[in-house]
Amino acid sequence: MSMGLLDPALNRAPDNPRHIHLIGICGTGMAALASILQEQGYTVTGSDQNVYPPMSDFLARLGIEVMSGYAATNLAARPDLVIVGNVVRITNPEAAELGRLGLPYLSMPQALGHFFLAGKRSLVVAGTHGKTTSSSLLATTLYRLGADPGCMIGGLVEAFGRNARVGNGQFFVVEGDEYDTAFFNKVSKFQHYRPFGAILTSVEFDHADIFPDLAAIKSSFAEFIGRIPSAGVLVACMDDPIVVELAGTARCPIVGYGTGTDCEWQLTGLRARGLSIEFSVSHRGKPMGRCTLPMPGRHNGLNALAVIALLHHLGFAFDAIVAGLTTFEGVKRRQQVRGVARGITVIDDFAHHPTAVRETLHGLRLAWPGNRLIVVFEPRTNSSRRAVFQEKYTRVFGDADTVLVREHVPLDGMPMSEQFSSVRLAADLEKQGIPARSFPDTEAILAELGGLCRDGDIVVVLSNGGFDGIHERLLAQLGHPA
Questions:
Q1: What distances in angstroms separate CA 95 from CA 100, 149, 204, 326, one per listed residue?
Q2: What mean pLDDT is reported for the chain?
Q3: DSSP strands (E only) in 109-243
Q4: In this model, does residue 14 exceed pLDDT 90?
Q5: Fewer CB within 10 Å: C terminus or N terminus of the chain?
Q6: 334 falls in which pLDDT band (50, 70, 90)?
Q7: Omega before 54 cis (within 30°)?
Q8: What is the pTM of this model?
Q9: Residue 412 gets which letter from DSSP?
Q10: How many whole angstroms separate alpha carbon 235 and alpha carbon 55?
Q11: How many angstroms from the chain centroid is the CA of residue 438?
């Protein structure tokens, strides 16, 4: 076999593996998988190019050996199974050695399906937006209901202090990502998650680096829906016309939710109470009661309604579900208050797709109607750094009082004319009367915020990355104690 090529016949789990090695172990999903594999009694090791906190600390606390850097020697112990993260490319020296040694291998989604979803009722939350929040709401509420679910989620669930757990109950909650699986398995991750029940929140164009167009995304979601058995259920947001179209292909029962009068589960009368919301729920036109959720925004009300619809279908009582939702502690990096200094509130949020930016800012505007909302935006994903969303971004900052945009890190090998322009976005927002500026780096933004911020301001940082620790640095700059 030539270097770097993996034998497709070895893309399987061996019988009774003892030692499992993960290439790319410091990714959020891979570290979570490592933790629950170890919990199940396997000997787990791993390697990664970037071994740093918080994942390095998390793995060290578990006593999982992590090798720094990718090297053929990392496989010298000849593990029984190797799990390859989707960050790993075909040119990776460890992947090449895996092929040379002829060891069995799986992707992270394949491993999750094999080791944890077999024999469980897999509940998969899919959609362009709201996956992490909805799956966290679902797992936490099932836990409050005494169902002891397993879960694998893309964000740290505050109720568990982690993003994965084995659980002893019949349900396993999975955040169903449509991004691709691995270099040797170019299908969406959620195709491996064996759904019994699924929530579909929304479908839009995203992930421009792997999907050529919306039709390709719809095709992948349709294939996923086709995997739900006739005895299962699809809980679908009927406010989204593409979701309605895709739901029509399902062979299982469809439970619709949304704000329209034709929805089986309907949200009405939403009121903001600071960072919490309260809304009424109707089922088939019959009022069921009010629900309080300690998160802002209509989009989070709909996320909670999806959980109500699914759990009610699975046999749980409405009042018990709502009681569970009311005690939700949140998810890290989802409208998370990082601190308050000199009367200035600093919020961290993962939003980066134009729709997510719009909904997040609208929710925060409802929470703080009389305060200045200063938005700091970092275009960091593959899609946000392309020109594909340039025009859409000009229409989603309407709830902001000021917008500061960091210039993106250019994409290699792509003409600048096809890439996002922070300068252009700032100019387009200025034309709409929204004060906006672009900045070359994080230091320049922090310098600007130093003179801009005043008592009562809400500073929301939107990025899917660490953004050079801007949250802590801003709070320190404002005099917040460490």
A1: 9, 34, 33, 46
A2: 89
A3: 121-126, 150-157, 162-165, 171-176, 180-182, 185-188, 195-200, 233-237
A4: yes
A5: C
A6: low
A7: yes
A8: 0.75
A9: T
A10: 33
A11: 27
